Amino acid sequence: MFYQSRDGHVCEISGQWTSAPGTHLGWDLEWLKWDDLTATVGGNPGYATSLTSFIDAYGAHVTFIGSDQHVYQYWYDIGASKWQPVKDLGSGPALSWSPLTSFADDSGEYIFYAGCVSCDIFLEYPHVHQLSFISGLPWTDIDLTKAVHGPDVDLYITPLTAYSEGSLRHAFYVGEYDCHVHQNLGSFDQDLTPSLQCGDDNLP
């Protein structure tokens, strides 16, 4: 479990499932260790940053937005059995309050965030960005909104979630001008609200 503490550091509480005969599930979660990742491997997380995490064959990954509005990642290297130094993924700038979502599939690792050129809320609205890592290649940042000429992301109310389905990667967000739920698949943007016959009043 990952969280941001009052001092702004990203911390981890780890545990393991142990056999517990006689209990409802037959298993119990035993919390074993607390670790301050920021103190251990560096970084300067932004205030109240979003966090997202996933596990793949390389280990555990937790992503946050730094005070400089870049996207950073902590990586627990299974092979070395330790957390590696914090890594700037080469993005940005991201909205300081941007939501984050991520996953890993057979092709690589993917992180999604709301980014912009200057993040001046009086001049522009953010776009959905995808950070991707394919084994042997550097991290790549793609402006998905620009790629498919989709609507801007709503500055204040948008959630952000994504998942992988075979060769397709789906990212979902709320559009700025129509307040509709949109799906961005990297090759086109789909407005799901009218296609599902949902009214705007049904949106959060």
Brief descriptors of the model:
204 residues, mainly beta, four-stranded antiparallel beta sheet, 7% helix, globular
Give a description of the structure.
The protein is mainly beta and 204 residues long. The chain has one domain (2-148). 7% of the residues lie in helices and 46% in strands. It has helices at residues 37-41, 144-148, 192-195; strands spanning 2-4, 10-19, 27-36, 51-56, 59-65, 71-77, 82-88, 100-105, 108-115, 127-133, 140-143, 161-165, 168-174, 181-184, 189-191. The protein has a four-stranded antiparallel sheet with strand order 4-5-6-7. A four-stranded antiparallel sheet has the order 8-9-10-11. The protein has a four-stranded antiparallel sheet with strand order 12-13-14-15. β2 and β3 (27-36) form a beta hairpin. It starts with a strand and ends in a 9-residue tail after the last helix.
Short overview:
The protein contains 3 helices and 15 strands.
Element layout with pairings:
Layout: E1 2-4, E2 10-19, E3 27-36, H1 37-41, E4 51-56, E5 59-65, E6 71-77, E7 82-88, E8 100-105, E9 108-115, E10 127-133, E11 140-143, H2 144-148, E12 161-165, E13 168-174, E14 181-184, E15 189-191, H3 192-195
Antiparallel strand pairs: 1-2, 2-3, 4-5, 5-6, 6-7, 8-9, 9-10, 10-11, 12-13, 13-14, 14-15
